[in-house]
Amino acid sequence: MKLTINQIRKGSVNEPYFFDGQADVTELEMMNNDIRKISPVHVTGQVTMHGEEFYVNFHLKGEMTLPCARTLVDVPYPFEIDASEVFSASAYYGREEQEQEIHPIQGEVLDLTPYIKENILLEIPFRVFADNADSDEAAPSSGKDWEFVSETKEEKSIDPRLKKLESLLNNKPKEK
Questions:
Q1: Compositional bias (Basic and acidic residues) at which positions (predicted)?
Q2: Is beta strand 74-88 parallel, antiparallel or unpaired with respect to 53-67?
């Protein structure tokens, strides 16, 4: 989601500049995290200017799919996140601004996408659980370089080479 500096300055003469849009964050699915799928995120917010600093308050709403902690079944996880970021268009951006987590604006465009992704990653829950207990059937049984092996007892098949030895044990008379 990108906003131009001129657009913000024109729209925020005596009041904050309001914005509303969608952000595509499907790149999060490819990263090394638990997000299996994520829908486009609805972003609403406002930008308030004070000199060369831009105070951005935004609200994120969307849904991501995460694995169940017990069965690895896909679990839809809706989220709503409120976040605030501060940006500076000043040419005198230095160490002090960096320590206060004031982000520099490069050029004439304020790109919120990296900060949207960062806030979503920070809000991923440690673990989620599927609602239904019978979700074992829906759980994946194999994947890249792995396969689920059940521990249920199956009939023991006897090696054909040892079949003759078994017949000796069965024909043995009982000793008294």
A1: 144-157
A2: antiparallel
Task: Determine the Cα–Cα distance for residues 107 and 115; give it in Å rounded to an integer.
Answer: 17
31 contact partners, CB below 8 Å, separation of at least 6: 121
Tokens of 134: 């019978």
CA distance 39 to 60: 12
Region of 44 (left: φ > 0; alpha: ψ -120 to 50; beta: rest) is beta
Q: Which of 104, 13, 115, 99 lies closest to 57, judged by CA? A: 115
The whole-model pTM stands at 0.70
Walk along the chain (176 residues) and give the pLDDT tens digit of each residue.
888 888 888 777 778 889 999 999 888 888 877 888 999 999 999 998 888 888 999 999 999 999 888 888 888 999 999 999 998 887 776 677 667 778 888 888 888 899 999 999 998 888 888 887 555 556 666 777 777 776 665 556 667 777 777 777 776 666 65
